[in-house]
Amino acid sequence: MFADDTKLYGTVDKDKGASLQNDVNTLQDWSDKWQLKFNIDKCKVIHYGNHNPNVEYHMQIGEQQTQIKEGTEEKDLGVTFQQDLKYTQHITTKVNKANSTLGLIKRTFQYIDKDVFLYLYKALVRPSLEYANAVWSPYLRKDIDKVEKVQRRATKLIPELTSKTYQERLKELKLPTLAHRRRRGDMIQTFKILHGFDKISVQDLFTQDSSGRTRGHNWKLSKNTAITTVRTTSFTHRVINDWNSLPSSVVNAKTVYDFKKKYDQHWDGSDSVFTY
């Protein structure tokens, strides 16, 4: 439960949803007791997974059992979750919002130099493209390009840079690609989880490498077998290779700020920061 949003979730297999239906009943009993009635028209069920039995769920409305309608997407804490877990709708919404903000900046300022651009872009545009991207980080090429095109368009607002290529503009501004920023964000989040800065159970997300290999650092993680694209591109799977390849001096940082500083120093001067 968060504010006025209430969500139930669970794995549906052999019991065909009986356990989840019991949870719905218990939640409704609680709401009736405290006279906080659910609006059945605003309730929905989303089925995830190719082999989901798509069980129907009901709520008691007066004397009648009413089926909860099925949906294909839901916005939760600012992120739109689709039934296929591709986040294309969320990406489209965020890109449109960022482009609208760019349009507003372009109409408001007759001339923008490098310093003003960086202040405006970093404060008003980029944050909306990076919020919670550990969850929705795009893996389809069309979505990756769609997000990156926002920054590509933004850097053309500076008159003296319009004749340069995108990579040259980024180097001139010392501005990494958004793809690199997402990888950096993944590494920061992984560091915070493994070092206890975020109160999340490490065992629920990662398995530490127990192979005994001494090469690299002592925070190496094991990569479990994954079959589906959704699983291989999820946060806990996609970060493994990047994390394991970091030098010991970076992963053994004492603070989050120190980790960010050492991570940026590790990639300083690399062309990969400005390409994707």
Any overview of this molecule?
By secondary structure, this protein is mainly alpha-helical. 47% of the residues lie in helices and 7% in strands. It is built from 12 helices and 6 strands. The strands form 3 sheets. Strands 1-2 form a two-stranded antiparallel sheet. A hairpin with a 2-residue loop joins β1 (58-61) and β2 (64-67). α2 (88-108) runs parallel beside α5 (141-154). It is globular, with a radius of gyration of 23 Å. The two termini are 39 Å apart. The mean pLDDT is 92.
Question: What integer value in Å does the Rg equal?
Answer: 23 Å
Helix content: 40-55%
Sheet/helix structural class: mainly alpha
End-to-end separation in angstroms reads 39 Å
Order of strands side by side in the largest beta sheet? 1-2
Features:
two-stranded antiparallel sheet, 47% helix, 276 residues
Précis, in short:
The chain is mostly helical. The chain is built from twelve helices and six strands.
How is the secondary structure organized here?
Blueprint: H1 18-33, E1 58-61, E2 64-67, E3 73-76, E4 79-82, H2 88-108, H3 114-130, H4 133-136, H5 141-154, H6 166-173, H7 178-194, H8 202-205, E5 207-208, E6 221-222, H9 229-232, H10 235-244, H11 248-251, H12 256-267
Antiparallel strand pairs: 1-2, 3-4, 5-6
Helix pairs in contact: 2-3, 2-5, 7-10, 7-12
